[in-house]
Amino acid sequence: MTRKSPPITPYGQAAQNYAAQSQKQATQRETEAHILLRAAKQLQDLQKDWDTITAKDREDALKYNRKIWVMFYENAQSNSAEPTHPTAPVVINLAHFVFKRSMDILALPDRDKLNALISINREVAAGLMVSQK
Q1: CA separation for the pair 88, 75 (Å, rounded)
Q2: What is the pLDDT of residues 77-113, one digit of tens each?
Q3: What's the Rg (C-alpha) of the chain?
Q4: How many domains does the chain have?
Q5: Does residue 79 lie within any of the structural domains?
């Protein structure tokens, strides 16, 4: 004899939907954090090997980092009017800084200018990894 599951109530369905959405958001945040850490590692490797890298290597690493920040920028722009996204202006400002600093490094290469980009990526990644409760 098989046992039937009790019917799901509207409250039970809402709880299941909330749990699924929370898991999806946690997974997305973790993915974004890992992407930022990967970019930070690329920039750190670029900094470490500064004297042996080519201009193309420098450009590729900075371009990858900018692409990530374009994604954050666009997401923050689309959510900036929503009161549930109070960090959107901060993300927009960080993205502007990342874009300007990247262009500055390309125009006037200096390994020490990478410190700020590496730090920003790591700090934002750490914030994304903090569980949302």
Answers
A1: 8
A2: 987 777 666 788 999 999 999 999 999 999 999 999 9
A3: 20
A4: 1
A5: yes
Q: Are 118 and 102 contacting, i.e. CB atoms less than 8 angstroms apart?
A: no
What's residue 133's pLDDT?
47
Q: For the whole model, what pTM was predicted?
A: 0.76
Q: Within a 10 A sphere around the Cβ of 62, how many other Cβ atoms?
A: 22
Q: CA neighbours within 13 Å on the CB side: how many for 38?
A: 11
Which residue shows structure tokens 């749990």?
A: 19
Specify the pLDDT at position 21. Answer: 55
* Segment 12-23 mean pLDDT: 56
Domain span at residue 95? 11-129
Q: Which residues contact 61 (CB under 8 A, 6 or more apart)?
A: 39, 42, 43, 45, 46
